Amino acid sequence: MRQKQIMFKALELFVTKGFAETRITDIAEALDISVGLLFHYYESKEKLYLELVKMGLEGANGSEKTPFDDPLSYFGNVLDGLLSTASEQPWICMMFVLMAQAQKPGIPEEIRQLALTVDQISFSAGLIEQGQKLGSIREGDPLALSNAFWCSVQGIMEYHAAMPEMPLPKTEWILDIIRKERTI
Amino acid sequence: MRQKQIMFKALELFVTKGFAETRITDIAEALDISVGLLFHYYESKEKLYLELVKMGLEGANGSEKTPFDDPLSYFGNVLDGLLSTASEQPWICMMFVLMAQAQKPGIPEEIRQLALTVDQISFSAGLIEQGQKLGSIREGDPLALSNAFWCSVQGIMEYHAAMPEMPLPKTEWILDIIRKERTI
DNA sequence: CAGTATATTGAATATACGTTCATTGAATAT
DNA sequence: ATATTCAATGAACGTATATTCAATATACTG
To answer: How far apart are CA B27 and CA B34, in angstroms?
Structure first.
């Protein structure tokens, strides 16, 4: 119970403020518990962060297993899922942001390396190549297309985490980055 | 001379690592100068960051004055400028990232407020509405469209700052987020 | 060259913040 | 009743890091 409380509040703060900017007392104060109690459940700030990254890893590995027929529909489905749950279950979108955050320098190396094992961009590049052969995805360097798509999603999730009141985009708008032809 | 050296290195580090994660000694070491010298030119880490944000403010106000006939071409031109200079003059793209970074909680309040005066998203929402009337931009909530577009650009710039070797997207791919009809 | 300003250093200081730990209170088992 | 376990506290501690400053080198000026 306490464990989950702490995790979710930490997720929220790490995502909105950043790892180093989030003081251990920020988390304690936000939950109205003592610092001591926090260390009773998590032996260090780093370990707490590590737990969150591990949680994110599971989620990421899960989504890569989403079944699909056309690669384009894979991206559509994943994106649709992200955008529709972003409002009701903010933590999903926060996890998304956290995983990207954890890959940056400045994060404790051990954790960073773990986070780097998730590589949506190069994983998706393969699917994009398939989609190009099938004619549903536009021409161009698959890696660059994958990069464009995921970076856009990243940017949207990041902003939504900071400003949840801002209206989210429609799935098609973002899907059109990689889509070959409009189905107007 | 030293001033500029320090600013650009600080910009690079603040953008790749974050404000709190960047130690004042990181900057000094990267430039191979003493900490003392750094404080000789900038009275504090915060002031140094403030200077960077002020520099970014000027740039942002400048780009809003880019002339255009069709709103869609405004977005095309600005985006084209950003993407083409991103590789040769990384600092422009870094400034872009810095300004967004500076708006987040965890940044000293005074600086944060200053950074918040730049509001590309609502500024652009007006242009998008125009574009919709002229028929060059797709239907939908102008604010959501503006948000989608700029968040995508943000995500791309952020990732490029961390991984400059990753191929950048073509302007049209991102422009297609807001474009009404493809000019195939 | 003397003299002054400016650039540069790095050890000393102050402080913020993560972490420890002795202690308390409450619940549960013996 | 007594012992044992566990949640919970917050003051005390240590360390990392921003900041200061007195001392030194270098450049400039007349």
So the answer is: 9
Predicted TM-score of the model (pTM): 0.93
- pLDDT tens for A52-96 read 999 999 988 877 777 788 999 999 999 999 999 998 898 999 999
Query: How far is the C-alpha of B10 from the C-alpha of B20, rounded, in Å?
Result: 12
What pLDDT digit, counting tens, does each position of A168-180 carry?
999 999 999 999 9
Cite the DSSP H helix spans in A135-182: 142-162, 171-175
Q: CA angle at residue A174 from B85 to A124, to 5 degrees?
A: 85
* Chain A nearest CA to B63, separation (Å): 21
Chain A residues inside the 8 Å CB shell of B177: 152, 169, 173-174, 176-177
Residue A61 CA, distance from chain mean position:
12
DSSP A181: S
Residue A165 has pLDDT above 60, yes or no: yes
Reference A96, options A107, A83, A105; nearest CA is A83
Nearest-CA residue relative to C1' of D18: B24
Residues B136-161 pLDDT 10s: 999 999 999 999 999 999 999 999 99
- Residue B19, φ and ψ in degrees, nearest 5: -65, -55
Query: Residue A42 in 3-state DSSP?
Result: coil
Domains along chain A with CATH numbers: 53-175 (1.10.357)
Cα dist. A181→A175, B131, B176 in Å? 11, 21, 11
| Residue with CA nearest C1' of nucleotide D17 | B23
